[in-house]
Amino acid sequence: MASEHPKGLNRMKKSKRLKDPKDPKHQTCLNWRPLMHPAQPTMPTPPALEQRARARLITPDYDEVPVRTTLRYTPDDPFAVHIDFPAGVSADDVNVTWAFARALLAEGLDRPTGIGDVHLWPHGSAHTVVELRSPHGMAMIRFDTSTLRRFLRRSYVVVALGGETLGPAFEGGLASLLDGV
After folding, report:
1. Residue 94 DSSP code
2. What pLDDT was estimated at residue 136?
3. Each residue's pLDDT tens digit, 104-155
4. Of 124, 104, 106, 103, which Cα lies nearest the Cα of 114?
């Protein structure tokens, strides 16, 4: 039985025999093309951007506690930036993510700005303070402005400023809602 080949090898030999150019099965295989609607060419999705950032949590007594955060940006949510905080920072001792407008971050690097629960302002020339408010309390976090600027520049590589869209699913749904109007 030493001359017998494993089953997989026998199958491979059989499949090689099927690769005759005149064989209709082979031609079907060669002519296969993925189905694609001509009006919707596929575009590669840019990768999400993640950047670690050291920050300082400003306590109610104005002491500063070092915090490691992650800044995130994804083309699936192109108008927003996300800041992930580790479990030890929140009152509930769980990981917390805050999301707010990328335009708000850009404006807050140069002048005080804020909408609702998120406010930003420059703190001298080297730092930016991000203030986050919730029903559970308020947190002020100081970042190096250069770190936030670098993250913002990198986010513009993922999705250019002005190139943001709400996405085909949202736009298609909105179009169908407005179709009868």
Report:
1. S
2. 82
3. 999 999 999 998 999 999 999 999 999 999 888 889 999 999 999 999 999 9
4. 104
Q: Among 47, 40, 74, which residue's Cα sits nearest to residue 171?
A: 40
- Nearest CA among 139, 140, 109 for reference residue 127: 109
Please say whether the beta carbons of 83 and 105 come within 8 A.
no
- Extents of the domains making up the chain: 49-158
CATH number of this structure's domain 49-158, picked from the four choices 1.10.260.40, 3.30.750.24, 3.20.20.140, 2.30.31.20: 2.30.31.20
pTM above 0.85, yes or no: no
How much of the chain is helix, strand and coil, in % rounded to 5? 30, 30, 40
Question: Per-residue pLDDT tens for 127-140?
Answer: 999 999 988 888 99
User: How many alpha carbons lie under 13 Å from residue 180 in its C-beta half-sphere?
Assistant: 3
DSSP code at position 88: G
